[in-house]
Structures are given as C-alpha cells and as structure tokens.
Amino acid sequence: QSTLFAATNTGLYRYREDGSDCWQLLRNGLPQTGRVIVNDLVADPYQGALYAAFPDQGIFKSDLNGNQWQMLAGGLPTSPVFRIALAFGG
C-alpha cells in the first residue's frame, strides 16, 4: 500500500492508496492552533522516520506511517522561526 504526504499551509495530510480516495489531516501530536503551516517534510527510510517542520512550533517526528507525532526538543532558537528547511543526509 502506497502512502503520500502533503505539507501545506493548513497542516499535514496523508493519502493512502487503500480505496478510500481521501486525504486525511494528521493531528496526533501535531500543532492544531496558531500557525499550522508545514514548511517542509522529509523521510528517513533507514531509521523509519518522518520529520515535519512547523514555523514557530518546531520539528516533529513520526514513524513512516505518520500516525503519532512527537515534538523534538532542544537545539532550535527560542525566538520565532518563520522558515525551517529539512534535509535527509542518509
């Protein structure tokens, strides 16, 4: 089953080729208030992880299914960050 993710200005969406023909807004552990713009999304297939960047919110991590997300702590500026770009270096 293939899965497609979309980083948008209204949140992070997932589409699964399972016959439902429906985009799903992901919520579990992701920001739902304030700026929910997703600047970037990257997959690390070696660690089995997805990373999503939200301005003013931080970077969030999930498994490749995108079911449950956790905010990564430490290392980012504490002042507002308006653009976060991610890159996979595997």
Explain what the structure shows:
- The protein is mainly β and 90 residues long.
- It is built from no helices and 7 strands.
- The protein starts with a strand and ends in a 19-residue tail after the last strand.
- Helices cover 0% and strands 38% of the residues.
- The model has no long low-confidence stretch (mean pLDDT 87).
- It is globular, with a radius of gyration of 13 Å.
- A hairpin with a 4-residue loop joins strand 4 and strand 5 (49-54).
- Strands 4-5-6-7 form a 4-stranded antiparallel β-sheet, with no helix packed on it. The protein has a 3-stranded antiparallel β-sheet with strand order 1-2-3, with no helix packed on it.
Write the layout of secondary structure elements.
Elements lengths: L2 E6 L2 E6 L6 E3 L14 E5 L4 E6 L3 E6 L6 E2 L19
Antiparallel strand pairs: 1-2, 2-3, 4-5, 5-6, 6-7
| Unreliable runs | none
Q: What would the principal axes of the Cα set say about the shape?
A: globular
Rg value: 13 Å
User: What is the terminal-to-terminal distance?
Assistant: 24 Å
Overall mean pLDDT stands at 87
Q: Helical proportion?
A: under 10%
Please report the total strand number as a whole number: 7
The succession of helices and strands, N to C, reads EEEEEEE
Largest sheet: 4 strands, antiparallel
Strand content: 35-45%
Class from secondary-structure proportions = mainly beta
What's the tally of helices? Answer: 0
Spatial arrangement of strands, main beta sheet: 4-5-6-7
